[in-house]
Amino acid sequence: MQASNQQNTAQDDQVSWWFKLLARGLGTIGGLDMCEPLGVPEILAGFMVVVLEAPCCCPFLDFIDKIGKFSENRPYWQKGALYVGSGIVPILLCFSTTTVLGCALVFGTGVLYGMMALGKK
């Protein structure tokens, strides 16, 4: 055990203090990915779309039917604004490929509802 500690100490002596500090700093910053906690709005937006568009996917929640019926009575422009807004917020908070791909369908649904609100031209 002592021989292994002495070998590690000998290896550590060959590395400068600033290089050790740099490695620890980069590891710490890399471990604190800011996009992970910001994924919560993306998950909530997806759940909201499922609840509003397909309440049959959540039969285990009693209040979902009331929300689905309320959603059916809303004008298209309100649904479009809600979906576009909830699809854009996670992208503004953390712009990355996974966030854009995850929110693209919610945003696209909002765009389609906006087009339905405009009607035939």
From TrEMBL:
Keywords: Membrane, Transmembrane, Transmembrane helix. Its main location: membrane. It is a multi-pass membrane protein. It is found in: Endomembrane system. Coiled coil: none annotated. The chain crosses the membrane at residues 99-118. Belongs to the calcium channel flower family. PANTHER family: CALCIUM CHANNEL FLOWER HOMOLOG. This is FLOWR-like protein. It comes from Mya arenaria.
